[in-house]
Amino acid sequence: MEYTITKNITSTIDMVNLAKNGDKDAFVTLIQSNTNSMYRVAMSILHNESDTEDAIQNTISIVFEKLNKLKKNEFFRTWMIRILINQCKNISKRNNKTTSLENIKEESIPPIGCTNIDLYNAINKLPTNLRLVITLFYFEDMTNKDIAKAIGIPEATVRTRLFRARKKLSDEMKGVY
């Protein structure tokens, strides 16, 4: 991060402190460093480019407005992902009321970091709750504890969902390789 070098900031916690104190450059740097993560998570839930962009925009706005309410700066990323997931759920609910043919036919783009199209397609076949934990665990390198906080479920449920998702992916991929 360029910002880290110029201001000698060593961690996300320092960046969050600066952003809370009104440093807009620190806030922009925090958002930029998490943009790919937000995109992957939102896309895994919504499967629609424009809805994903809406969810990310809404999330950034909420994070900016409520950053001072974050109690522990080390949980910034988890807190932000939680807001994003809630925004995705809201958009998904809105879309379930009205579905256009455009949304049905739209192909989603594999997330950044996923180079195996067969694996990506298998992940997309998973139910949303399993797909979300797989995305957070493998693509976002979040711990079970952080995933549990972000989604609002017990840690044991995260482990169970990961187990089920791995099993379904294994079964799906057997015919491919």
UniProtKB/TrEMBL annotation:
Name the Gene3D superfamilies on file. 1.10.1740.10, Winged helix-like DNA-binding domain superfamily/Winged helix DNA-binding domain
* Key word Magnesium present: no
The organism's superkingdom is given as Bacteria
> Any idea where the RNA polymerase sigma factor 70 region 4 type domain is?
119-169
Q: Where is the RNA polymerase sigma-70 region domain?
A: 30-96
Alphabetically, the GO molecular function entries are: DNA binding; sigma factor activity
Task: Output the Pfam families linked to this UniProt entry.
Answer: Sigma70_r2 (PF04542), Sigma70_r4_2 (PF08281)
Offer one example of a GO biological process linked to this entry. Answer: DNA-templated transcription initiation
Concerning SUPFAM superfamilies, the annotation shows:
Sigma2 domain of RNA polymerase sigma factors, Sigma3 and sigma4 domains of RNA polymerase sigma factors
Q: Which UniProt keywords apply?
A: Sigma factor, Transcription, Transcription regulation
The family annotation for this protein states: Belongs to the sigma-70 factor family. ECF subfamily.
PANTHER family for this protein: RNA POLYMERASE ECF-TYPE SIGMA FACTO, RNA POLYMERASE SIGMA FACTOR
Q: Could you tell me what this protein is called?
A: Sigma-70 family RNA polymerase sigma factor
Biological source species: Clostridium bornimense
Biological classification of the source: Bacteria, Bacillati, Bacillota, Clostridia, Eubacteriales
